[in-house]
């Protein structure tokens, strides 16, 4: 029955690592810009936020892009692991992180359409403050 255990272990490890790396990378990006963060779970998944703190459009784009930019090389490195289950974990990490980044990419697309001076604030939802001349 050892082979059965080996079948579910890489996908499970890939899922856990993806959540930790993906949300942790958002957290590192928030910290880089000096924000206090919180991690949580909501009805639509895991999240990282800086509640009640205003952040700019460009910072928000960098924070949203961080997991795709930083976790992808980790997943690629795992693909070359000499131990096959580790390579499988890398594959799951790449696929799941990329899939998990879809909402981040959507947010980036929406932010790019807004004026540079736009501010955002996390709360029970994300609040977007447009500059007066753009309102």
UniProtKB/TrEMBL annotation:
Matching InterPro entries: DUF3267
What domain of life? Archaea
Residue ranges of the TM segments = 61-81
| This protein's UniProt keywords | Membrane, Transmembrane, Transmembrane helix
* Protein known as: DUF3267 domain-containing protein
């Amino acid at each position: 029955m050892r082979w059965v255990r080996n079948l579910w272990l890489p996908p499970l490890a890939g899922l856990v690592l993806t959540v930790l790396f993906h949300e942790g990378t958002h957290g590192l990006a928030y910290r880089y810009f000096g924000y206090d963060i919180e991690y949580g779970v909501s009805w639509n998944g895991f999240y990282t936020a800086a509640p009640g703190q205003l952040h700019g459009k460009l910072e928000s784009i960098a924070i949203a892009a961080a997991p795709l930019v930083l976790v992808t090389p980790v997943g690629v490195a795992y693909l070359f692991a000499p131990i096959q289950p580790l390579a499988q974990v890398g594959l799951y990490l790449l696929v799941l992180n990329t899939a998990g980044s879809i909402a981040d990419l959507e947010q980036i697309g929406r932010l790019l359409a807004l004026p540079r001076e736009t501010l955002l604030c996390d709360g029970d939802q994300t609040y977007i403050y447009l500059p007066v001349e753009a309102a």
